[in-house]
Specification:
This protein is an alpha+beta fold. It contains 14 helices and 23 strands. It has a seven-stranded antiparallel β-sheet. The N and C termini lie far apart (about 60 Å). Bound molecules: zinc ion (ZN). Zinc ion (ZN) binds next to helix 12 and helix 14.
Length: about 675
């Protein structure tokens, strides 16, 4: 099927190039898409709400912090030297893919522009865009490390060069600028770069161009988004070709040994097997998840059901056997890899922030392509746990890896597993990735189709958008993620026909059900899959209240999950909780505490004083302590493993961890059984 020829439902862009005003990911073909994003400006988050305040903090603190850091870390200077024709003897500063950090900051600034940006941000965008235009080679090539240090290596190290990876982030920044109307000069740079790619890379066998893929996937989804914005079918074809070439045995992944010779398996680069033949999630977690997002983008635009099915197969493997309770992925520091099934150690979890963001983006694409609520469940879960916890309360410190157990006395500022969030990293992929996601987060909450609107994640704010037969304005109020109730009020509606408001029922809630009332009276909504549906001729003044029970859930791991066998974890609503050393009695180590499962934890608004204003609900539980002093490392089996008496336990949300002085923390806590044994 010719891409872009299918008719999309009511009010949705029908042809490439009409995505102006939309956020990230704007399908143009209805061949596979089931749901459609609404406009970037259609959702406005409320001040004083959890999401609204976070987005505001992202603009005021995180984005400006990232701008400072890409300047002071030397990433901008790398491009300046290239633009000025500097000597190749001057060393490149930072990682050889540092350009991508700048591109992610530019993307974040573009998404932020719909709410207005500061002079500092505007000046950075202006100056950097001009710099990129000057640094770009006459033939459209752009990569400061290659141009500045190894001009002879262009496209000769697809394994490690990250040239297409950087190009992808530039395209995504240009797409953000185009869709927000915040500028046009990045589009010129991006357009020249795409032209260069099309002249360089093979589009079909035997065309004499370079046959190869990037060791770090990302270009796939960027090219599809570029196609969606510009209508460039050649860009879509190149994306499709990149997916098809990946893993093909006759396609080499050339390298120049930039890694010092350490051999990495082809699976690290996701080039070990054709994507349509794979059934297992594997390799470098971020690369796998970006690749899967690109696969869904290509499948959606080309109507390729087999390709979409291949990605859903990987999802099933990943989410049934290789996902942390916090929604994170990547259980090995070695090769930053996903690991084997059920290999999910808490204390050595890698769980990179970028993998969590990539998972969120992949699940959003799967949600649009299939309409299946399980993808929205995965988005909400990874968002409120790993992504929310990757950044400090102040918005200027970050975790790269997101461990589920930080051991007592682990005192390190090492980038690989620091005890506290760091202001920046030499490999700085995560902070600007967070900035670009949060700058556009309102675009991931609501969709529409021919029936009406779907609310996937609760939030406080307004929705002003098109519905069948007219337009509607809704006001939403919720205490999510602390409270289960969401009120939706219709403040304006011009629709002249019935339309359906669909509300996701989270998987965790399906056995309890959700209560729904319409205009103050209980209402029996139809349940279609995992969405409660209310269909009517909506009028101004109509209101819906939906209420999710928020019981404290005590969770046990699958028996194959050896690393946390006989441990328990606690969750309330979407939030996973953890124990922090700060909340234990003096002298008690977090590893010596067991959770009494006969006394279910209870929610409390009495939160630790240092977390007031950040955490609204703590959980109070009881436990006991192991008497560590009398224990040998190994000894004969003994029934009595406790010395000290009862220990009152306070659990705080995992995302809020690490904002106090003592850093030790754990999500999975050994279970104290009802007979008092462990
Ligand atoms: Zn990262």
């Amino acid at each position: 099927m010719e891409p872009g020829t299918e008719q999309a439902p009511n009010g949705v862009p029908r042809t490439p190039g009409q995505g102006a005003g939309t956020g990230p990911v704007c399908p143009t073909s209805a061949a596979l898409a089931r749901l459609w994003p609404i406009g970037l400006r259609d959702v406005v988050l409320a001040e004083g709400s959890a999401l609204g305040d976070w987005q505001q903090r992202n603009s005021a603190k995180t984005l400006t912090h990232c701008i400072d850091k890409v300047v002071t870390s030397g990433a901008v200077r790398n491009l300046e030297r290239v633009a000025e024709g500097g000597s190749s003897q001057t060393p490149h500063e930072g990682m050889h893919f540092s350009d991508s950090d700048i591109y992610k900051v530019l993307e974040a600034a573009a998404w932020d522009s719909v709410r207005g940006v500061s002079t500092q941000v505007a000046d950075f965008v202006e100056g950097t865009t001009s710099l990129l235009a000057r640094a770009q080679r006459d033939d459209g090539y752009l990569h400061s490390w290659v141009q500045g240090q190894h001009p002879d290596l262009a496209w000769r190290d697809l394994r490690w060069g990250h040239e297409l990876y950087c190009a992808g982030h530039l395209l995504q920044a240009a797409v953000a600028e185009g869709r927000t109307g915040s500028g046009h000069r990045l589009a010129t740079v991006a357009g020249r770069l795409v032209e260069h790619l099309l002249k360089t890379f093979s589009l079909e066998d035997g065309d004499g161009r370079l046959v190869g893929v990037c060791g770090h996937p990302l270009i796939e989804t960027a090219l599809v988004e570029f196609y969606r914005m510009t209508g460039s079918k050649a860009a879509l074809k190149l994306a499709q070709r990149q997916v098809d070439l990946r893993g093909r045995p006759d396609v080499e992944l050339p390298t120049t040994d930039l890694t010092g010779g350490r051999p990495f398996p082809l699976s690290y680069f996701l080039h070990h097997m054709p994507v349509r033949k794979r059934s297992l999630a594997t390799g470098h977690a971020v690369r796998e998840l970006y690749l899967q997002a690109g696969i869904v983008d290509v499948a959606t635009e080309t109507g390729d059901e087999e390709l979409l099915s291949a990605s859903e197969t990987i999802w099933e493997d990943l989410f049934s056997t290789k996902t942390y309770l916090t929604g994170a992925h990547g259980s090995r520091h070695r090769d930053e890899s996903i690991g084997d099934a059920y290999e999910l150690p808490s204390d050595r979890a890698y769980a990179e922030t970028c993998a969590a963001i990539a998972s969120f983006q992949w699940n959003w694409r799967l949600l649009l392509a299939t309409g299946r609520a399980r993808y929205a469940d995965a988005m909400e879960h990874v968002f409120w746990n790993t992504i929310a916890g990757s950044v400090s309360r102040e918005g200027t410190e970050f975790f790269y890896s997101n461990t589920l157990h930080l051991r007592t006395d682990h005192d390190s500022a090492d980038e690989d597993s620091p005890s506290h969030r760091l202001e920046w990293y030499e490999c700085a992929c995560c902070p600007p990735n967070l900035a670009r996601l949060m700058a556009s987060i309102q675009a991931y909450l609501v969709t529409r189709d021919a029936s009406g609107l779907q609310l996937h994640m609760p939030f406080s704010g307004t929705v002003s958008t098109e519905v069948p037969g007219g337009t509607v304005e809704l006001v939403l109020r919720t205490g999510h993620p602390w409270e289960g109730a969401t009120e939706i009020e219709v403040t304006r509606c011009s629709a002249t026909e019935d339309w359906t408001l669909s509300l996701r029922v989270p998987e965790r809630t399906r056995k309890h059900g959700m209560e729904l009332s319409l205009n103050g009276r209980p209402f029996q909504a139809s349940l279609d899959g995992s969405y409660m549906k209310v269909t009517r001729r909506w009028q101004p003044g109509d209101s819906v209240r939906v209420s999710e029970p928020m019981p404290v859930r005590v969770l046990q791991p699958h028996w194959r999950l050896d690393a946390v066998r006989d441990c328990l974890a606690v969750q309330r609503g979407p939030l996973v909780y953890c124990l922090e050393a700060e909340d234990l009695d003096d002298g008690v180590a977090i590893e010596d505490v067991a959770l009494d499962q006969s006394r279910p934890p209870e929610p409390s608004s009495d939160v630790p004083v240092e977390l007031e204003g950040y955490v609204q609900v703590a959980l109070m539980a009881r436990g006991k302590c192991f008497d560590n002093h009398s224990r040998q490392l190994y000894e004969d089996e003994s029934a009595n493993r406790f010395g000290a008496g009862a220990q009152a336990l306070t659990l705080v949300p995992y995302f809020a961890r690490g904002n106090r002085a003592r850093a030790a923390m754990r999500v999975w806590v050994p279970a104290l059984r009802q007979d008092g044994s462990q």
